[in-house]
Write a structure and sequence with these properties.
- It is built from 1 helix and 5 strands, in the order βββαββ.
- By secondary structure, the protein is of the alpha+beta class.
- The protein has one domain.
- A 5-stranded mixed β-sheet has the order 3-2-1-4-5, covered by helices on one side.
Length: about 70
């Protein structure tokens, strides 16, 4: 992965934002779906993971858009 721990879609101060390395990238969103879509595009552009957090702060979903190793059995 080229971006350390990737793009995180999180809820901050009443809005949804995307962060990379703790710094906000892009705008803020009133609805989670819009933030997730923008975060996905950011992760794809960066070739990294996208971590989608819930209101509780926990990661609820994680997707990888990087160069994953193909040596995984199965």
């Amino acid at each position: 992965m080229s971006e350390g721990n990737g793009v995180h879609t999180v809820h901050r101060d009443g809005v949804w934002v995307n962060e990379v390395g703790g710094q906000q990238v892009g705008g803020s969103f009133d609805h989670k779906d819009a933030a997730v879509s923008a975060g996905r595009e950011e992760a794809i552009a960066r070739g990294t993971e996208h971590h989608i957090h819930g209101l509780d702060g926990q990661v609820h979903e994680k997707n990888s858009y990087g160069n994953d190793p193909r040596s995984i059995p199965g």
